[in-house]
Amino acid sequence: MQAGPETRRWGSWGSIVVGAVIALIGLILAAGGAWLAMLGGSLYYLVVGVAMAVAGALLIKGRLAGGWLYLGIVAVTFIWAWWESGPDAWALVPRIVAPVVLLVAVLLVMPTLSWRRNRWQLALGGVAAAVLVTGVNLWVADANAPNPIWSQLPAPGTAGMADPSGQQVGADWPAYGGTYSARRYSPLAQINPANVGKLERAWLIHTGDLPKSEKIRNTYGAETTPLKIGDTLYLCTPKNIMIALEAATGRERWRYDPKVPDEAIPYTAACRGVVYYAVPGMAADQVCATRIIEGTLDARLIAVDARSGRLCPDFGTNGQTDAKVGMGEVPPGFVSINSPPTLVRGVLVTGHQVLDGQDRWAPSGVIQGFDARTGQLRWAWDMMNPQWSGYPPEGQTWARGTPNMWTIASGDEQLGLVYLPMGNAAVDYYSSLRRPEEKRFATSLVAIDVTTGKPRWRFQAVRNDVWDYDFGAQATLVDFKGTPALVLPSKQGDIYVLDRRNGRALTPVGAIRAPSGGVEPEQRAATQPVSLWHTLRKPDLAERDMWGMSPIDQMICRIQYRKASYKGFFTPPEAGRHSIEYPGYNGGTDWGGIAVDPQRGVIVANYNDMPNYVTLVPRAEANKRGWAPRDQARGDIGGAEGAGDPQANTPYAVDVNAGWRNKFWPFSKNGTGMLCKEPPYGGIRAINMADGKIIWDRAFGTARTNGPFGIPSMLPFTIGTPNNGGAVVTAGGLVFIAAATDNLIRAIDLRTGKTIWQDVLPGGGQATPMTYEANGKQYLVIMAGGHHFMETPVSDALIAYALPD
């Protein structure tokens, strides 16, 4: 005689296995949920964890009640998920998908515990219903998620603006940002929304500059945007090889390799672009009458003949000038020029990257102006020694540790001004040792008179910055309601409009009360400036914004959120406890900058929306961990910025979890790799420059190359990924951009914000594209070189697209 279900002591093998899994997950959720509840967080995980442990135990015992209890848990979870996250499909995924997967398993084992004749039909029907309900929930959530904001796109020709750089873009692309006004705009319209779907690869070339070891691979980031002058493209590779190509075919005309050593690489081997200069008064057939100039990772300025690629003998010493002269001791990799100088009135104005987070008394952030013909120093601006106009007096050096300009300046040829987006002092997360002049000029836009090298005005966006919120983007020169102006985006997400003659704000700027505390509360400013005209910044984070691939890692992120110090925007860093910095140091807007359509008066801004998880590490503990400046025995090349930076000669090192990844997961050294904040992590937005209002705003980037543990999901759904690199907007009504981590280049309809063409790149597209005309045909060019920080595939491919003949 067979035993009935009422006499069973144990369930079937299936119910035992499924019950054990549910019970184990329940115990984990109950333990973590109790911790979270004690921290003041959600009670859901504790309650559901206990219920799951009971349901699992019943299933192990062979009780149908365990299955019904778990079904009730899933029903409650659906209600809770919608109550907490609303109609947001990506927010619902970790809340409901994993529980439903377990529900399918429960439904399939329940027939083994029942003696009803139709038990399998009911089970399979239940599975189908669970999958259908989940799919409908996610579809409804996605369909009812907040739609892009729509307003009227200004008509072409309503906001025409002259370009004060004196350059013309169209057939050519004469400067990194199109011109030194940095609008990233082209008047070309051959490619338009009606025909962009036919765009195809016209040519592809390989630069040959690839890392020769895995160690160096972890530093590569090909960020270059080529120039196009006449019939030739000019570009530089990550290690500063200059290359000239035939614009119509990609055929190589010449190359020059400055032989930059690997030890000169800072965090990233990157060369964003080169400079073209036609020397006034020189006959066209003279050597170096036209020249290509670049800054190198080992801080040289190098000039070569634009026609032959040979060094210019009249520039510096045999074509080279060393920008490190006057800096004193400079360890390899501590000073590098990775952005093209800005050329105004024959003066090459350059800053340089000083390796972040290494030493309070790292080399100087001095700004230098070199004669573009002779390579000789015209002037230097050392904020600690403003009386000096040239090299330091004998036996002295430029002041060490001062704020630097690692990114790209813009220039006004008419006013004779260069606009410097300034960084921070030599360590970002400790401020007590900063001098008054450093506090005054750090995280500011400084206008320099190119004739004298003296500051004309400054605009500061952060007071005594300890968040690495230095300006990364070029200011873009525009006309604003009849006033010569510039648009200034920031890492915080604020966008300002300033009179470029005097720095006066043309749009409202307010102040918010800033949180106090941290390790040096007396240093924190009571208020911080914010733009009241437009910001890309989202509301402060809440516990419900935490994310993961399952309820467990979402709970872990909630616990981390509750344990951390978070007082909103500008939360100061602490020691012995993490703090949350939101947005993180990668944006808002970073070095990719913005694009401006001067005919329609439209700003296009791609942006990041991620926090950082930060902690200061006392010096004794940092020493135990072996954190030391890179020039010392314990130092090393590469690594993410801020992740274990020693900040020598201050009381604290710093450890920055950029993007705030969940690093706590069994059997995985680096955790799931998923970010603790829910998507989107990046977006792209069109803004009406007349009033600062949003025209459209969309999540930017798909999930195809992202997934837990670094495994690509290959899902084509838009999630909004981190992005680095800028956009180009054209008179044809298109926005061309790569930048995201999904290795795609896109054409976006400027009117609607919809992607209407895309192509898969052979590497990451962390560079700004450019467009030009050759032989009557419009081309689009992108460097698909990848980027170690963005974890996209490294490549040496430069690709040109065009419409078919």
From TrEMBL:
Annotated ranges, domain Pyrrolo-quinoline quinone repeat: 173-779
Top-level EC class as recorded in UniProt: oxidoreductase
GO terms for MF: oxidoreductase activity
Protein name (record): Membrane-bound PQQ-dependent dehydrogenase, glucose/quinate/shikimate family
EC id: 1.1.-.-
PANTHER family the UniProt entry points to: QUINOPROTEIN ALCOHOL DEHYDROGENASE (CYTOCHROME C), QUINOPROTEIN GLUCOSE DEHYDROGENASE
Family: Belongs to the bacterial PQQ dehydrogenase family.
InterPro entries, alphabetized: PQQ_b-propeller_rpt, PQQ_mDH, PQQ_rpt_dom, Quinoprotein_ADH-like_sf
Cofactor(s) named in the record: pyrroloquinoline quinone
Species whose genome carries this gene: Sphingomonas molluscorum
Domain of life: Bacteria
